[in-house]
Amino acid sequence: ATNPGFDQWLIDADLTIRGGIRTTPDGAHEYLIGDGDGTSWPLVLTIEPEDAALGASEVVGFDAKGDRLWLLNAVGADTKRLVGFYPATGAHQLVYADPTHDVVGVILHGDSREPQVAVVERDRAELVVLDPSLAGDIETLRELGGGDVHIVSRDHADQRWLICSDRDDASPAYYLYERAQRTTTFLFPARPALGAFALAKVEPFSFSTSDSLTIHGYATAPVDRAREHLPTVLYVHGGPWGVRHRWGFEPDAQWLANRGYLCLQINFRGSGGYGKAFINASAQEWAGRMHTDLIEGLQWATDAGWVDPERVAIMGGSYGGYAALVGATFTPDVFRCAIDIVGPSNLITLLEGIPPYWVGLRSQLHRLLGHPEADRDFLWERSPLAKADAIRIPILIAQGANDPRVPQAESEQIVSAMKERGIAFEYLLFADEGHGFAKPENLLRFYRAAEEFLAEHL
Asked: Catalytic: 318?
């Protein structure tokens, strides 16, 4: 088929092209669905920008008859819900909603393509039974290995399932589940070499911010000592919108705990999974309340006795790299050092360099972050580069030379400012990487440098 301008095709269970989704300049999603002859694509549904952007609207698929399109979106609600949409009439059918957390996944029946299980990610991923015929199976699987259970695939008779159990302190493991006997057979671990190591437990926690917002996070502590007065790495996720820290096996958190650090991961406002209001609470709050959430979460853990406040680092990639630079410039007294991985230092140049393929995202960035012309002074005030004089802690900066999202210039600007001021820093430029590092030799080079940097300063 010739693409008439769709960002995503819509294809039914019989592999018939039914239409597609296109993004408008203001960030709305338009659903164009025809009768399958491929000659006409009438507009049947529009998801407005607030409900379409930043992962707030997803397609699950058609039912077996092709009459309904299963969608995950938050239209008319705060959290992302499972709904059935009838293209022929424009009607909607609410299937399942959680009042505080987004529905992040759906398991459909292999033949009817009817939804049977919804996945809601609270502190941990939880399976919500929609089809009573599966209630006993899901109850059995919840007891499997103490991990979060994921149904990977099912045979055509729907009697044998491949299951993945994702644990926090062990490799994800795969099992064969026999429905008739309700028995599970261990198959293999995803990462067998991890069996030789004592891995750490990941503990969910939550706290209330100074403006009465509930924030959730995770703590991963070394296994060989009490969780008391520990050197700590505040590890900030990227995104920031639509992304979040999750419970389970997380390599960076385990690496830090293995080296003797408490790893704190906080889902600050704007993180995904907690509804639209939580994302909207982050509007124009870069270096504002988004950073305050991190600081207040760190203080909560310090008050709990976990953290040595004299030995705290802030580290992250992309937005997390920006947060690390904000920590070094806006709140330098809180941290002993910072590690910035492909993080922007100047919000004006970041927005001016938005790549062309971010068609509908541009307007959302202007709404949630700021407009490079109308909000120029505000964006400069929230840029770490503007506060380079305040840096009093060493910074390790790592950057990919081919990064289309956060160009090399974002790191070069802050490096140049630190050079001029005689501020201690380390700069790793990877000539063959982009937005983050993929090649094993580069990953090892970065982690080796990061480990030595943290050991020296914490």
From this structure: yes
Q: At 228, give phi and psi (nearest 5°).
A: -140, 125
Burial of 205 (0-12, 13-18, 19+ CB in 10 A): middle
Backbone torsions φ then ψ of 293, nearest 5 degrees: -60, -40
How would residue 34 be classed by pLDDT, with cut points 50, 70 and 90?
A: confident
Q: Which of 101, 216, 237, 435 is catalytic?
A: 435
pLDDT tens digits, one per residue of 375-401: 999 999 999 999 999 999 999 999 999
403 is catalytic: yes
Catalytic, out of 171, 403, 411, 457: 403
Query: How many CB atoms neighbour CB 152 within 10 A?
Result: 10
Angstrom distance (rounded) from CA 107 to CA 201: 28
Letter for the amino acid at 381?
Answer: E
Strand spans (E) along 195-278: 202-208, 214-220, 230-236, 262-267
161-209 confidence digits (pLDDT tens): 999 999 999 999 999 999 999 999 999 999 999 999 999 999 999 999 9
Residue 286: φ, ψ to 5°: -60, 130
Give dist(CA 92, CA 78) in Å, integer. 17
Rounded CA separation 355/340 (Å): 21
Q: What is the DSSP letter of 453?
A: H
Q: Which of 318, 345, 383, 411 is catalytic?
A: 318
Beta partners for residue 10, in sequence order: 19
